[in-house]
Structure formats: C-alpha cells, structure tokens
Write the structure tokens for this entry.
Amino acid sequence: MSMTKQKTMMIEFRFEQAKLRKATELGEQIAKEAGFLKPPVDPFVVIRNEQGRIKHFGDNFGSDFDGRLEFQRPSFLLFYNTKYDEWSHAGKHHPKVSFTIGHELGHYFQEHHRSYLMGGGGAHGSLTEFQSNRMVEREADSFSSGLLMPKFLLGKIVNRAAPTLDAVKQARDMFQVSLTSMLVRWVQLCDFPCAVASIRGEKVGWGYCSTGFKNVGIYQIIRGTRVSSRNAKEFISQDSSFTNFREGSGYSDISRWVGNANQKCVVTEQYLVVPSTQQMLVFLTAEEEDIANDRDW
Ligand SMILES: [Zn+2]
C-alpha cells in the first residue's frame, strides 16, 4: 500500500471515529439530562421525557427489522422488534430490544438524522448492535451505547482494575445490556491495554482498541482478513457455525490482530461465541509491563 493511500485511510478513520465519538457523547448527554444516577438506563424514561413527541410500538416484526423510526406529523413513530424478548433475559426487555430503542433514539436526537426524516427522507429498517457498516447506523449504535452505558456511570467501574472477563460480565448484568455492547463500550473507556474483535465466517468483522493500547501506538484491529492466531483458529475449527454458546482462551502476538503494531507483545485471547448473532467475540488483554510505553519507537 502506498504512503498516500495509507495516509488517506488514516485520515478517514480518524474522521469516522470523531463522528462516532460525537454520537456517543450525545447519548451520554441525554442520559445525564434524564437524571440517571445508577444503572440500568431505561430508554423508555427518555421516550416519556419527550412528552408525546415519540410514540412507541413494540411487536414481533419477524426478520423485517430490529427497529424503525418514522416521522408522521406531528410525532415520531418508533417501532421495535420484540422477537428477541423470547430469549432469556433479566430486565423487562431483552438487552437487544433496549439497545434497538436506544439506536432509534439516536436517529431522533441526532440533528442530521432527524432533519432527514422530517424533510421526507424515507424511514429505514435498522439492523442494530454493530451489524451494519453504514455510517448513519454506526452513529445510531454509538448513540445507543453512550445512552445505555454513559461514561459517568461506567467509567469508574471499567478503570478500577486491569480488565477481566468476569468484571465485564458483572457490568453487563448491572447495565442490562448484551455482552457484545458491554465489551465494545468497556474497551472504549478502558485505560488499560485491551481490545475486542468480532469474528464472522472465520474473518475479522470489526474491532476496537482501548486507550491503553492507543497510547503505545496500537490502534486498529485488522478487518476483513482471516484469523491468523493459531489458538483462535483452533477454537473456531471446533465448530465454526457459531450456533452454540461456548467459551475458550488462548494467546498470540498483538501483530496477529493489529496492523502496523509498533511492537511485539503477548496478548491473552478470550473467545466467546454469541449464537444469537452467529459471531465470535475475542477479548484481548495485555500486561501493562509487557508493552513499551516509553515511546522510543
Ligand atoms: Zn437505524
């Protein structure tokens, strides 16, 4: 790849990240204004606060969409698919349903999404929770993530100690969100070195690195390529259909996951199969003393 191409990609990446961060911050702001002092954040409270400007309809919409927002003067209609409520869950709704409502609220609260809908732009059926590559969908996901897991409620929990999967699961239960959402948000807020990657069909779909990694030049999970970590490949080969829940662990070098990693460093890999979305998540953690932070590279 040429230097210019690489530079352009880096600029695009930063620009996207800035947009997504803005969406997340707006979600957090809405949670703050609604007055939540402890988790979980209930998106229905946010709807209620809009005093009739949003009407919501939950139903089993099959495989049509997860959620949908329409403008019908004078209000917005928010549809959400309750088919996921059939899966076991703790709160009133399955975490996927709450996340979807948060996502649709993202289309409502973000000015450029809202004015598009009010200006006659057609409603679209959303696929939520990081399943879409389209920027508006990713923005809405980021909004939902900030709303349901705002930094002012989650940040301290995340940075109390070096990350463990158990701590992530505990936080997931407290915030009543899915493990996928919590892992992504955890990594975003974490000052320790960690990362998350999603695998589908033996290829890396998406991934994120924590501030702890970014501080030492480890930025971007390699996407769209086959998994190259030997332990992860072994785990996948046991059942690559990802239709049954299972967990495992292994290790590799960070260069197996991150492009242009500036250094070598051993990462612990924890594997989690998520049958509902037929993907596998990999939680990567590194010991702080194993990564050079003196920036001598
Ligand atoms: Zn959407």
Notes: The chain is about 40% helix and 20% strand.
